[in-house]
Write a structure and sequence with these properties.
The termini are far apart. It is built from two helices and 33 strands. The strands form nine sheets. A six-stranded mixed sheet has the order 2-3-9-8-5-6, with no helix packed on it. Strands 27, 29, 30, 31, 32 and 33 form a six-stranded mixed sheet that branches. It has a five-stranded mixed sheet with strand order 19-25-24-21-22, with no helix packed on it. Strand 12 and strand 13 form a beta hairpin. The protein is mostly beta strands.
Length: 410
C-alpha cells in the first residue's frame, strides 16, 4: 500500500498540468502570482517568425466521466478578471480555442466534473539588425541591434502586472568565416583582421524562450595583404632566388631586396614571379610593400635569405679506380667567383689544368686521373697541385694553403 500511495502522489501534478496545452507553442513557463505563490498557471510562448502567429489552447477535463461543458473566457483589464466570454461547447470530451491573441484565458469545465483552468499566451519575436558601422584599410566595425519583447501577465487577485523574466543573447558570424573578436560579447564588434574576400555578416538574436531573429548584410572587401614565397632561401653565391607574389589587391609593388636594391612595379598582374641574384655572401632581409587602388597599404618582410660565405677544402688523396667512390681529385667549394687548378708529376710535368667561373665552375667534376684529359692514366704516386681561387666575398685563396701534395691510388 505504501508504494501505491507514493505513485499516486507523484503522478497527480503531472496529470493536472497536462489538462491545458498549447499546440505548436515553443516554450512554457509558469506564473508566480505575488498573492498566490502556490498557483502555477502555464504561460505558453509562441515564436512569431512569420509575423502572423496566433495561439491555440486545448483543454480536457482532469477527471470525471464525460461528456463535459467547456466555457472559454478571456482576461479583461477593465474588470480585472476573466470576464470576456469567447465561446461555449457542450456535451464534448475535449475543447479547443484557436486564433488567440496575447493575453490570459480561462476555461470552466462542468458536467461530469467541475474544474477551471487558466493559461496565458504570448507571441514572441526578438528583433535583430545588422549593418556596417565603419571601415578603413585597417579595420571593419559592425553595428548591431538586439531587442526582445517584454511580457506581463496579470495578478489574478488584483489585476496588477507581473513581469515574465526574459533575457537576450546575440552572436555575430560571417560566411565565409572571418575574424570577429568577441562575437557574443560586443553588439558593435570591431576587427583589425578584416576579411580579404567578400563575406556576408550575420547577426543572430535569441531570448530565454528559444525564439530567434536573424539579420545579415553583404560586405565587399577593400583590404590588402602583402605575401610572397621564397625559393630557395639558402645557398652559395651567386644565389638566384625566385620570389612568387601571393599578394591580394595590390596594384603598386615595391621590392626591397636587402642590399640597397629596390624594384618598383605598377599593376604587375596576379602571381608575378621575380628572379633576383645575390652575389655577395651574407644574410638578407627582403621586404615587399603593396598599395591598392583605394590607397590601402600593407607590407611583408622575409627574414632571412642566407648566402653562404666562400669556402675551399682540398683533399690529399683520391682513387680513380672506377668504383664510383672518390674517383676524382675534386675540391669542396662554396661561393667562388673562379678557380684555377694545376697538377704536376714529381718530375714537374703538368698532368692536369683547369680554369672555371660561372656555369663552367658549377659543372666542373675535378681531375679524373688521366693525363691532360687524354685516355692515358696517370701512374699511382704523389702529385703536386697549385690552386688559386677567389670568393664572392672577396676572399683570395692564393697562399701556401692552396699548394700541396695529393696521393693517387689505383
Amino acid at each position: 500500500m505504501r508504494y501505491f500511495f507514493l505513485i499516486i502522489v507523484v503522478l497527480l501534478p503531472v496529470i493536472s498540468e497536462a489538462q491545458l496545452s498549447a499546440p505548436g507553442m515553443s516554450a512554457v513557463r509558469y506564473t508566480s502570482y505575488p498573492s498566490a505563490p502556490a498557483v502555477k498557471d502555464p504561460i505558453f510562448i509562441y515564436c512569431n517568425a512569420s509575423g502572423t502567429q496566433k495561439g491555440s489552447l486545448y483543454a480536457r477535463s482532469p477527471g470525471g466521466t464525460g461528456p463535459f461543458n467547456f466555457s472559454w473566457y478571456r482576461w479583461s483589464d477593465i474588470t480585472k478578471s476573466f470576464s470576456i466570454l469567447l465561446k461555449t461547447e457542450t456535451g464534448v470530451l475535449t475543447s479547443s480555442s484557436n486564433n488567440l491573441d496575447e493575453g490570459g484565458y480561462k476555461v470552466i469545465i462542468s458536467g461530469g466534473f467541475e474544474a477551471s483552468l487558466v493559461g496565458w499566451i504570448f507571441i514572441d519575436k526578438p528583433f535583430s539588425s545588422a549593418e556596417l558601422q565603419n571601415r578603413t584599410c585597417d579595420y571593419v566595425a559592425l553595428k548591431g541591434k538586439a531587442a526582445i519583447d517584454t511580457f506581463f501577465y496579470k495578478n489574478i487577485s488584483n489585476g496588477l502586472p507581473v513581469k515574465l523574466p526574459n533575457r537576450v543573447w546575440f552572436l555575430w558570424s560571417s560566411d565565409p568565416t572571418s575574424s570577429i573578436p568577441f562575437p557574443d560579447l560586443y553588439i558593435n564588434p570591431q576587427t583589425f583582421n578584416p576579411p580579404l574576400v567578400d563575406v556576408t555578416y550575420n547577426l543572430q538574436v535569441s531570448d530565454s524562450f528559444g525564439c530567434v531573429s536573424y539579420s545579415s548584410f553583404p560586405y565587399e572587401s577593400i583590404h590588402v595583404k602583402a605575401d610572397f614565397s621564397v625559393d630557395p632561401d639558402k645557398g652559395e653565391a651567386p644565389l638566384e632566388v625566385a620570389f612568387t607574389d601571393k599578394s591580394i589587391r595590390g596594384i603598386k609593388y615595391k621590392w626591397e631586396f636587402g642590399n640597397d636594391t629596390i624594384l618598383e612595379l605598377n599593376d604587375p598582374g596576379p602571381q608575378i614571379l621575380i628572379f633576383y641574384k645575390y652575389y655577395k655572401p651574407g644574410e638578407y632581409s627582403v621586404k615587399l610593400t603593396i598599395k591598392s587602388e583605394r590607397g590601402c597599404i600593407d607590407s611583408m618582410r622575409f627574414d632571412k635569405i642566407v648566402v653562404d660565405p666562400s669556402e675551399l677544402k682540398i683533399p690529399n688523396v683520391f682513387t680513380p679506380d672506377g668504383d664510383g667512390l672518390n674517383d676524382n681529385f675534386m675540391v669542396e667549394s662554396k661561393s667562388l667567383r673562379y678557380i684555377s687548378v694545376e697538377v704536376f708529376s714529381r718530375s714537374g710535368m703538368k698532368v692536369y689544368n683547369f680554369y672555371g667561373e660561372g656555369e663552367r665552375l658549377r659543372e666542373w667534376q675535378g681531375w679524373d686521373g688521366n693525363v691532360n684529359n687524354s685516355s692515358i692514366k696517370a701512374s699511382p704516386g704523389v702529385y703536386f697541385y697549385i690552386i688559386r681561387a677567389y670568393g664572392w666575398d672577396d676572399v683570395d685563396y692564393n697562399s701556401k694553403e692552396q699548394k700541396g701534395f695529393v696521393y693517387l691510388y689505383r
